[in-house]
Amino acid sequence: MRAMNNLLPPRRGRSDDRETGRAGRSYQYLADGRLTIEAIDGNMVRATCHGFRDSYELGYEPGLGWWCSCGSSRRCAHVMALELVTQPAVAVS
Questions:
Q1: Which of 24, 47, 52, 56: CA 20 to 30 A from 6?
Q2: Do the beta carbons of residue 68 and residue 55 sit within 8 Å?
Q3: 67 domain residue, yes or no
Q4: Does 57 fall in a domain?
Q5: Is 57 exposed, middle or buried (0-12, 13-18, 19+ CB in 10 A)?
């Protein structure tokens, strides 16, 4: 007889859960129309994301990479949303 634990999906770590949560929020920002692209110039993109608590400035710049004013030390949901709609157009170097 197999143990019940073998029937359950493998447990993910906390960092996996957080990444999944950020990805879900990024799609929600897009579905709710919370992301506004302010400017695109060559490989530079600037946008505003109206998060659930505050609004943030974010973008991509060659040499600097993806950035957001939310202050997160990790790749935030705001940047993930912007990547989803612009990455095919931005040649990341």
A1: 24
A2: no
A3: yes
A4: yes
A5: middle
**Residues spanned by the domain of 79:** 37-87
- With contact defined as beta carbons under 8 Å apart, do 84 and 26 qualify? yes
Distance CA 35, CA 14 (A): 27
Section 19-34 average pLDDT: 87
CA pair distance 73, 60, nearest whole angstrom = 16
The answer to whether residue 55 is domain-embedded is yes
Q: Residue 37 pairs with which residues in a beta bridge?
A: 47
What is the pTM (predicted TM-score) of this model? 0.72
pLDDT of residue 78: 96
Residue 2 forms part of a structural domain: no
Q: What is the pLDDT of residues 58-80, one digit of tens each?
A: 999 999 999 999 999 888 999 99
Contact present, 47 and 29 (Cβ < 8 Å): no
Please give the DSSP secondary-structure letter assigned to residue 29: H
